[in-house]
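A further point concerns the way the authors explain their paired sequence and structure data. The central task, working out the structure tokens from the amino acid sequence alone, is never made concrete. I therefore recommend that a typical entry be quoted early in the introduction. An entry of this sort, consisting of the sequence and the corresponding backbone structure tokens, reads as follows:
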Amino acid sequence: MALITFDHSFAQADFDLFAAISGDNNPIHVDPVFSARTRFGRTVSHGMLLYTVIWGLVQKQHPGARQLSQSLMFPNPTYAEEPLRFALTELSAGPGRRKFKTQVSRISDGAVVLDGETEVALP
């Protein structure tokens, strides 16, 4: 069972802002005309934009935690205005460390759009 969940949808403006901040201006994320000609048919989220929400959940549980490692896969696309469920589940706890399963799924069909793990050091 998830330790913490959070439901959220991103707008195209969020994709555009993340592109401006990160410097990742790949047209698949920010150009609707270009993206319409791809297999996705429309713009898709940056994977790391999804992870920033996960990182916020980690910080909510453990303020000041530091990232030690992460492994992430993005098996399905995420589109603007699509309701998502972000989930953080504790896998293990050791002295000064925590390891979490991280997952983001589409609420409409349950498809996983981010699947991974992260390990943190506690302050």
